[in-house]
Design a protein that fits this description.
By secondary structure, the protein is an all-alpha fold. It has a single domain (3-39, 47-132), classed as Membrane associated eicosanoid/glutathione metabolism-like domain (Four Helix Bundle (Hemerythrin (Met), subunit A), Up-down Bundle), CATH 1.20.120.550. It is 84% helix and 0% strand. It is built from 5 helices and no strands. The two termini are 28 Å apart. The model has no long low-confidence stretch (mean pLDDT 96).
Length: 133
Amino acid sequence: MPIELKILTWGCVLALGHIFAAVRVKTRQYGAKWNMGARDETLPPPQPLVGRLARAQANYFETFPIVAAAILIDVTAGITSQWTAVGAMLWLGARIVYLPLYALGTPVVRTMAFGVSMVGIVMLLWPALAVAL
């Protein structure tokens, strides 16, 4: 299996990590009854950690489909290389670091981690764009 697909697999695991981290702290704030209910009630504002993990999750799911598509395009088209592998690894490594940085409320380093993940995405997209032009 190409390294890019292995990275995509771990990206799916990280997606689950985002989901469970966010719902765990939200359940801690609002209770198990809320978690198991219809969630129709109006809730008080989220505690800072709850809000940060929800935003980190939303951010992850904004870029994850792009990464998944880029990896699948590269692998299907047979245009993977050491650079797409590095791009995938950069993306995953940066996204792993991003979650705790966001949870801790770390402003500048978190943005830098996001930037590194974007570099990884560009490295994944570049070969497909080069062929598409």
